Amino acid sequence: MSEERVDSQEEREKRIIIVGTAHVSPKSIKDVEETIEREKPQAVAVELCMRRYLALKGEKQDIPVVDIIKRGEAHLLLFQLLLSYFQRKIGEEYGVKPGDEMLAAIKKAEEVGADVLLIDRDIAITFRRFWNSLSFVEKLKIVYNLLKGLFSKDDVDVDEMLKEDVLEVMVKEFRDIAPSAAKTLIDERDAFMAANLIAALKKYDKIVAVVGAGHKKGLERFISNPASIPPIEKLLEVKKGINVMNILGYTIVAFVIMLFIAVIATLNTGIILKAFAYWFLINGILSAIGAAIAGAHPLSILTAFCVAWLTSLNPAIAAGWVSGLVEAWKRSPTSRDIEELSKAESLSQLVRNRVFRILLVAALTNVGSIAGTIIGAWYVMQVTGIDIVEILRENFTHLLQIL
């Protein structure tokens, strides 16, 4: 545990005392409590957002599963839940509960009559910005390493895992995979928390800030030089934009549409029906398999089978969104399911949770649909004998001649 005093440049008597926690341990908790007791600050700032604060306090939170699926973010929440589960299980095994030092800081603040300030950025925004900053290959590597870590402890650096919260775990564990994204996340949150602390000095003369040790230097740097802090609205902005996956998706759809135009142009009813049949079956079966692997309700599996052929032709909607919505309708998750997400003691228990199951159905149905689109297009070309590459070459040559 380390401690640092940062004097305000405007008023020397105003102070921010930064406590950097190195371990979530009884000693660390004691150090945090002693610092607050000794300094008697007017406010105690903690490295939490409202979502994480409520989660630590054990208060009920709504997870808008349907809205998440409609936004196409089921995979993102799944990633977040798996990462939280990963850290929690390691903490339990080594007798450490993530967040205990933050709870101790909040409790001690209440005892000394200090206000509690939540200074971190919303975790949902942080995960979205992190995910959007990754390339497709980086995303695959991260998912692979996360899943590998869930089933094996051989490559886990336990000391590092115990030092920080779920967000620090994310950036540290994956630094080698996506170094620029990890660095951006740490710097962004340092800047965001520093801005909140500087703003709080307008109301409070003394603030004790309890943060992970990895944020201490960044906070000191930004507080000593407020002009270097980016505009807050920029740090809260979540851009969807066009990424490689969007381009790839639209390219595949365009290719498939041209393939079917070429099939229809043959004016051979037998070939057209055969092409459609293979397209329907391959897309439907693989999407249904994805839903079944996730343990979907039979109606959700049937839905995945029936809609995959059509959703594969429209990148604006995915088969997983439709099957996920049906799964949400059939499973009807309750607030109890949401509460139990944070208490799952095994992967099987996590998968049995209705909220997690719905997200898993949406994600794996989409995986099956993507595979079905690629395999289906290839198979249609094989059974129809249509060379789409040659057709494109001929059309392009014809277009050049016209021009």
Description:
The protein is of the alpha/beta class. The chain has 20 helices and five strands. It has a five-stranded mixed beta sheet with strand order 1-2-5-3-4, with helices on both faces. The longest helix has 31 residues, at 354-384. The chain is elongated, with a radius of gyration of 26 Å. Pfam families: TraB_PrgY_gumN. Keywords: Membrane, Transmembrane, Transmembrane helix. This is TraB family protein.
Sheet/helix structural class: alpha/beta
Low-confidence stretches: 7-12
Gyration radius over CA: 26 Å
Mean pLDDT: 77
Order of helices and strands: EEHEHHHHEHHHHHEHHHHHHHHHH
Q: Count of DSSP helices?
A: 20
First-to-last CA distance: 72 Å
Spatial order of the strands in the main sheet? 1-2-5-3-4
Q: Give me the oligomer status.
A: single chain
Q: Strand content of the residues, in percent? A: 5-15%
Principal-axes geometry comes out as: elongated
Helix content: 55-70%
Transmembrane segments: 247-268, 275-295, 301-326, 358-381
Keywords: Membrane, Transmembrane, Transmembrane helix
Protein name: TraB family protein
InterPro entries: TraB/PrgY/GumN_fam, TraB_bac, TraB_PrgY-like
List the helices and strands and how they pair.
Elements lengths: L1 E6 L7 E7 L4 H14 L3 E4 L3 H8 L7 H6 L3 H20 L6 H13 L2 E4 L4 H10 L3 H16 L6 H6 L2 H8 L5 H22 L5 E7 L3 H9 L7 H4 L8 H22 L3 H25 L4 H14 L7 H13 L3 H7 L5 H6 L1 H31 L3 H15 L1
Parallel strand pairs: 2-5, 3-4, 3-5
Antiparallel strand pairs: 1-2
Helix pairs in contact: 1-5, 4-7, 4-19, 9-10, 10-11, 13-19, 14-15, 14-19, 15-16, 15-19, 16-19
Keywords: Membrane, Transmembrane, Transmembrane helix
Organism: Archaeoglobus veneficus (strain DSM 11195 / SNP6)
InterPro entries: TraB/PrgY/GumN_fam, TraB_bac, TraB_PrgY-like
